[in-house]
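Single-chain item
Fold in token form
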Amino acid sequence: MPPHSERKLSYLFTRTYNRNAMISRLSFILLIILSVNATAQTQSQQDKLKALKQEESTDYFKEWLDEDALYLITDEERAVFSKLTAAEEKEQFIEQFWQRRDPDIRTAVNEFKEEHYRRIAYANEWYKSATPGWKTDRGRIYIIHGPPDQVERHPAGGPYVRPPEEGGGTTTVYPFEKWWYRHMEGLGAVELEFVDPSSTGEYRLALNPYEKDAMKYVPGAGLTDSELRGDTTKADRPYYFPGNYENRLNYYLGSENDPFRQWEKFVVSQKPRPIKYPDLKEVVNVNISYANLPFKIRADYFRLNDEQVIVPITVEVSNSQLSFKPEEGSQSAKVAFYGIVTSLANRVAAEFDDDMVSSFPAEKLEQGLRMGSIYQKVLLLNTGTRYKLDFIVKDLNSGKMGVVRQGLVPPKFGKAKLLASSLLLADVIVPLTDAAEMEQRFVLGNVKVRPSVDKAFVQKNPVGLYLQVYNAAVDQATTAPLLRVSYQVLRDGKTISQMVDETGESLQYFSGQRAVLIRALSTADLEPGRYQIRVEVQDKVLGQVVTASDEFQILAREVTRN
């Protein structure tokens, strides 16, 4: 090959190599740029996907807590779950939550979990109205306790023949359903009734079987057998007056119509309300102890069933300690209350908050400042357990607060012998003629009882006495207990006066569980000073005696409450 040809070939080879190398370098640089962009885009997409998954998981956990597990989760479990922050921790908690309820861990399927979600689906399909089925009263009971053992449906209402326990006779009723459970945990055999007074499919759990009567307020319509005979009137019905003991035989009242039994049934589905005043809760959490708003507090104990006790917490605040501000032509003070009950193991048994307004016309404010404002919250606590109550009162106008911590020891009310509840000394005792609301204050069964917190009464005004007696025997001849009740007033250990009831005038209500005694104690002959009241109840059938006592004070000046 000629030299010039070799040089030309070398030149062409070198030029081609350089061009190819340059193309390779440019391709490599372009590849890096594209890779960086792709990586940036991938990272951005991953961040968005991660944020979306986190948002979805947050919604899932909230929905699980507030919907899926609402009727199952205990207060202790809810408190633990609310403290978890990582999604992995919450997922592990939910897994353990279902495992603890698995009836047979040997099987691959959690039968409890499957049944729970089946009940939710069933409730949503069959009990929905304007409200999702799982939120309705029927849905809630169905999800918690499963299908009833027996159901009686009246979807159109209309003509209805009452059974003897409802008084007999015919009437017109709203749409309603009766559910029977042979056994419900904590209650035994239970009959529940759901009524739809608006005919919209919104069935509500009824307090008593008389709520379905569409004619109860119509004069002369839908009369019972005894009303047709002229023996009674509508005002005598247990719906209006559950404790009308004299007319009990006209209605054949059973345990299901006992107002305390009705209250007990509502306990099954009660759920705590959200806290309105979290700042008061913080006072308890940080264990602050001070009091620039003094108040008085008392706790009493009444049997509900073998496992639970009714505990009314009654609080009185002097209006002179409150700040009143003008509001719509009146002078008003607003007070907030917060309470929490915990066991000795620091487990929350009850938590509540509420508020109360005291108002007076401007011209009567001076008189109002001499009064006291009284508040009450009724708790349901287990027997045989010691509790701690932290209670806070706050004047919302001035910001002043009062704090009290005290023990609560619900007694065990057994069935072996004659027993008595707390003795209430009250300035108001009124038998109710209408069915009471479940959250109504100062109500025990079918009686409005407003206890005197300081147990101070004005001279010549009567002292109301309220006492429940348990396990009294029934005299077969009268179908009522035979009780001898002695009311003894003492001063400095000496008897001042004594009144004995041999005829049963004090007996306001009786059922198989309890006898309710009410009496007005005259103070006309009592001078101002401190006294003791002693109530002795003798069961003439059993030959047993039980005694309850308390101290009180007679004042010469006027003391009023609002």
